[in-house]
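As a warm-up, study this chain.
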Amino acid sequence: MHIVLVEPEIPANTGNISRTCAVTGISLHLVRPLGFSTDDRQLKRAGLDYWHLLDLHYHDRFADLQTKYPDGRFFYASTKGERTYTEFTYRPDDFFVFGKETKGLPDDLIQANMKTAIRIPQIEGARSLNLSNAAAIVVYEALRQLGFPNMR
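Now compare it with the structure written out below.
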């Protein structure tokens, strides 16, 4: 399973997501440009002592990632998604794509992939959840569906 962060801006969010990936065995893909250095102290502190468990990949463009994994199923997290994240049946090699904290994913990317755009329900008028919370909610649902493979 894979989490993809497209142009993340806040090091603490990426650090928290890194930690979630490390403890679950999920690969993390960071798509540049990043809004911070990966040497950032806040990033490392949020990931704490889990960095050796993290399967981390960097990509210059989202299209590069898609080219590298042509058979991958990509789910695009967005408040604009028509279906909730619980309405899908996930597979072990799925990709969960999240956008930058201030803008989310580009509208054209969501519109082109509306069939696999997922949203987390929330009350009217709320902008969105914190990125690291949203990523954890979605991937733990996928892991639950799969019976928490290789986890105790």
